[in-house]
Amino acid sequence: MHVTIHTAALGRAETHITNSAAELVRMGFNPSSLPRVDRLKALAAALASELEAIRDEGGRGAREASIALTELQKASMFGVAAATADLGKPPVTYSTGPAGTVPVERDGGVG
Fold it and tell me: Where is this region: Disordered (predicted)?
């Protein structure tokens, strides 16, 4: 697996996704079947692969790369949570009044 990157600075570049990076973000586990979830996980796994290489080189940046991998795993999970937050729920509407902007109650509860 790989991710292709196109930027002004790089032009076209590819990053190989390692098996350990794919496992870190649990690529392939997507019960929602949302393409956005798969994209988020692939991007996170590509970054994880680059960080693993820095960590495994054992230089001065190894510790920072290890910390970044932990934080990336957390960010990936929150990204998936954000992408799937509205599954099966009606959208929240807001009302602006004297108390400011507040969620409108739905199904007997707020938000």
Answer: 89-111
Q: Are 42 and 76 in contact (CB under 8 A)?
A: no
In this prediction, what percent of the chain has a pLDDT beyond 90?
A: 63
Spatial contact of 92 and 106, defined as CB atoms under 8 Å apart: yes
The answer to whether 30 and 22 are in contact (CB under 8 A) is no
Enter the tokens of residue 57: 């080189």
Cα–Cα dist 3/41, whole Å: 11
Q: What pLDDT is attached to residue 107?
A: 55
Looking at residue 38, what is its pLDDT?
Answer: 94
